[in-house]
Amino acid sequence: MWPLYAAGFTTAFGAHGIAANLGGRSEDRVTSLLVLGGLLALYDGAEVLLKPVFGTLADRIGARPVLLGGLVAFAAASALYVVVDRPGLLWAARLGQGAAASAFSPAASALVARLNPAAGHGRAYGSYGFYKSIGYTLGPLLGGVLVWAGGLPLLFGVLTVLGAVVAVWALFSVPRVPPLPRTRQTVLDLARRLADPAFLTPTAALAGATAALSVGVGFLPVSGAAAGLGTVATGAAVSVLAACAAVVQPRAGRALDAGRLTARAGIGAGLMTAAAGLVCAMLPGLAGVLLAAALIGVGTGLITPLGFAALAGGTPPERLGQTMGAAELGRELGDAGGPLLVAVVATVGTLAYGFGVLAVLLAVGPVVGVVVGSRVGGGWRGRV
């Protein structure tokens, strides 16, 4: 399992480490906000388009080859910019990193389920989410230090070594998991599976959690600055959010495996907690920012391992890659849609109204979950 945790860390560290440092210390490469937006969109755009494709490929040829190939491709794409430090190669390297992460991220998620019994999925996904959260936390901080010390090439160089080391580690440590026989699936069959509440409800919750997380990371510093807080205070608030998410995820997974918590109840509680955090973000001053960060972190920490465990428990093993790829697509849409929604509402009104609208949408989720979840049983354990 450790190489899979390292793969989760790699995609999170690579995504946030570069994204957080593109605009601040690379004026020679990022010459305008439009260029910055394009570079940020490349990574996420590649993931939106390719994660379902590579998830399906993992079911067809096995998740391990897709994991290894994605990690090698990530290292190669990162090395491209190290070897040739030019603006055009920065775009190519960032696109290559996103495409590679689209391969090894859903493959790792599928292997987490294949290598653990169903009774241990909560603990396994909790640990996997913990190390991804560590990557999200360290990415901006350590990435900033590396860019300060040696510019973007040094950061890309570290990512090259990280991807290569994890690939070699996985090659020798992750066992071969052969693909399982699959029945023929039509487009209509796929549509039915993806519309089933056993898939749709956890995936929607994961998208909502990612939306709240992205809004917290992106807009809480804006609220803090408007209240007269310095960058140290707002940066600490974002760190509180990531730390709370990291600490809660393993505990939520263990509670699920021990039967102390059901996926539906835990996800509902997580959505309500994240919604409460967004309401706190509407309050002025440091107290509102810190409360918002803590509650959003706890809420997303509850939702993430329980959502993936519910998906793994409700998916035929031969379709795990496809399900995880589609679920990751839902998360990416939440990652982009949440900040966009808040920004649009804030443009018409104020940022507080933006937080409030997203809070209402998240709070509606548990009500919808109660209605549709009853169709598949108490914990979304039906087959997807």
Question: What are the key terms here?
Answer:
mainly alpha, 82% helix, 384 residues, globular
How is this structure best described in words?
The protein has 384 residues and is mainly alpha-helical. 82% of the residues lie in helices and 0% in strands. It has twelve helices and no strands. Helix 1 (2-19) packs antiparallel against helix 4 (87-114) and helix 7 (197-226) packs parallel to helix 11 (320-348). The longest helix is centred in the middle third of the chain and has 53 residues, at 121-173. The two termini are 25 Å apart.
N→C terminal distance: 25 Å
Percent helix: over 70%
Name the structural class: mainly alpha
**Overall pLDDT confidence:** 81
Pick out the low-confidence regions. 374-384
Number of helical elements:
12
The ordered H/E elements are HHHHHHHHHHHH
Give the DSSP E fraction (strand runs of 2 or more residues): under 5%
Shape: globular
**Biggest sheet record:** none
Estimated radius of gyration: 20 Å
Annotation, overall tally of beta strands? 0
Task: Please outline what is shown here.
Helices cover 82% and strands 0% of the residues. It is mostly helical.
Secondary structure topology:
Blueprint: H1 2-19, H2 33-61, H3 63-83, H4 87-114, H5 121-173, H6 187-195, H7 197-226, H8 231-257, H9 263-280, H10 285-313, H11 320-348, H12 351-373
Helix pairs in contact: 1-4, 1-5, 2-3, 2-4, 2-11, 3-4, 3-5, 4-11, 5-8, 5-10, 7-8, 7-9, 7-10, 7-11, 7-12, 8-10, 9-10, 9-12, 11-12
